[in-house]
Each structure stands twice: as C-alpha cells, then as structure tokens.
Amino acid sequence: MIALCHSIWRSAALALCLWAPSHSALALQNAQADLAWEQIRPGLLYARQDIPIEGSATVHRLHWLRLSLTQPDLHLALTPPACAGLRMTALDREPIVASLNASFFTKEFFTLGHTVSHGTQWTGNYRTLESPLLACTADRQCEVLHQAPAQVAPEWNHAAAGVHSLVQSGAPRTAADDAQCGKFCTTPHPRSAIGLDSSRQTMVWVAAEGRQLSATGMPLAELALRMVMQGVADAVNFDGGGSTALHVETAARTRRPDNEPHARPIANAWIVSTRPDIDWAAVCQP
After folding, report:
1. What DSSP assignment string belongs to the chain?
2. Which of 33, 35, 173, 219 is most buried per CB count within 10 Å?
3. CA–CA distance, 257 with 264 (Å, rounded to integer)
4. Is the pLDDT assigned to residue 167 strictly greater than 60?
5. pLDDT per residue as tens digits for the range 200-236
6. What is the pTM of this model?
7. For 93-145, how does the pLDDT look when each residue is reduced to its tens digit (9 = 90+)?
8. In this structure, are residues 163 and 103 in contact, taking their beta carbons and an 8 Å threshold?
9. Would strands 38-41 and 44-52 be described as parallel, antiparallel, or unpaired?
10. What is the distance of C-alpha 33 from the center of its chain?
11. Each residue of 231-266: pLDDT tens digit?
C-alpha cells in the first residue's frame, strides 16, 4: 500500500495511506477529534484549526462549518441576484446564522458557470462546461458535479460553480495537479471551498485565511487533503483571495488579508438560515 501511495499521490503519500481500508475509519475519527467543535445549533458545528508550518512563525488557519442536511430547522440557500455587489456583512442578520462567499465573478458581477438561486437561473454567466459545481434541490438533496451539464437541471433550487475540483470520490487533487494550472493553484492564497461526505447528508464548508503576517493561505492540493481528512468525499473550490469570508452568528470568523482590511463586494454567498422565507428585498438593499 505504501508503494502504491508513493506512485500515485507523490508528496501526499503518507497522508493518503492513512486512508487505506483498514485505517480509514480510525484516521477520520482522529482527524475530527483534533478540532474543538462548537455547536452553533443542532446540526451546525464550527471549528477553527491552526496548523503550524515548520520553520515559520505563520500558520495555516482554517475555519470549518459542518451542516447536517437532514436538520429540519436549518435551511440552505444561495443569495439571489438582487444581492450581487453587496458585502458579506449585509448577511449578518437573523434568520441567517452562517454564510460563505461563493461564485467567481466579473466586475459586472456576472458569475462563473451555472448559477441558480431559489429556482431561478442567473443570466450573464461565463465559462460553463469546465466549471465544477455544487447543486441542491429544494429538499436539500445536494450533489457535486465535477463536469457541469450543458443546461441547468430543472430540479436545482440552488447551484453555484467554482474553479477546479478539490476532491473526487474521496481522492484529493495532488501537487502534480496544481502544477498543471500554475500559480492560481500552487500559491498559498486564501481559499473558500465546500464539500459533501459520501452519504450526502453532511455538507462541509471551509475557509482558509491568508495574506497575513500570522497566517498564510494554502495551495489547492493542501486544502483538498485537509478536506479529505474531515470526511469529505467530493468538493469544489469557490472564489478565494480577498473574497474569502466565513461568517457565523452575525460575525466574521475569518480575518481579512493585511493588504485588504475591508470586505469586498461579492456576487453571492451560500447561507444557512433558521427560516426558509427571507426578506431578500430588505437584506439586499444598499
């Protein structure tokens, strides 16, 4: 098994070997036990993780959110087009209890790939087929599509696309994968990502801080491996850099980059709320 891991996963061999069938359950249990999970509400957990970097005073700082998709009083949504251009702080209000920035976008707030909010498709999208996406139905049946279909599926209630798959069927992308897409993948940027476990009953959000004196971001392959260690089976990389922001209970849990202290306007965000009906006209007003 060790030889196989070396030949396939190169620098990630040791970590991935922990996921051999005889050890995978124990590795997952140990990895999750390393985090001090805070229960925000039943079905919603938050944890901050600082990972030391050898030979450096900085750390990799990750913020995790675990959402049970079977929790009846928690509702998942993507903010509508009317909110495009607002900052994440606009979402710091009841009944919203958590939010994470989502789509890549242009200066006109046209979004990357298929984008759907409350059953309505966004217009002005760019690049579609090469954009992996996360899509959910109204009854919270969610899936990660690593190859986007040509058309939006009629059952999608919410969907947003990213750039690059991070985890596919339990296998994380590798440093060799990152090398093929250049600095966007290999540079330790701030990152935002979402994944699903193999049961499709748990959704995992993660935001990596970066561009700070105290915290550096992550290459995509490193973030992917960390997601696998948290039980993620399939995951998508969403907009990162200065757009990266995870808010929980009306407050930002992520710190801003040192060179960009103020929140950016974004196209949209994934949100978790305690009610299915949100007055978006009030939320989205400037």
Report:
1. -HHHHHHHHGGGHHHHHTTSTTTHHHHHHHHHHTS--EEEETTEEEEEEEEE-TT-S-EEEEEEEEEETT-TT-EEEE--GGGTT-BGGGG-STTEEEEEE---B-TT-PBBS--EETTEE-SS-B--TT--EEEE-TT--EEEESS--SS--TT-SEEEE-SSEEEETTEEP-HHHHHHHTHHHHS-B-EEEEEE-TTSSEEEEEEE--SSSSEE-B-HHHHHHHHHHTT-SEEEEE--GGG--EEESSSB-SPPPTT--SPPB-S-EEEEES-S---HHHHT--
2. 173
3. 11
4. yes
5. 999 999 999 999 999 999 999 999 999 999 999 999 9
6. 0.89
7. 999 999 999 999 999 999 999 999 999 999 998 987 789 999 999 999 999 99
8. no
9. antiparallel
10. 21
11. 999 999 999 999 999 999 999 999 999 999 999 999
Sign of the C-alpha dihedral computed for residues 71, 271, 229 and 45 taken in this order: negative
The tokens for 172 are 């994380």
Q: What CA–CA distances, in Å, run from 217 to 50, 60, 222, 271?
A: 11, 6, 10, 23
Give per-residue pLDDT as tens, 49-93: 999 999 999 999 999 999 999 999 999 999 999 999 999 999 999
**Rounded-to-integer distance, Cα 244 and Cα 192, Å:** 6
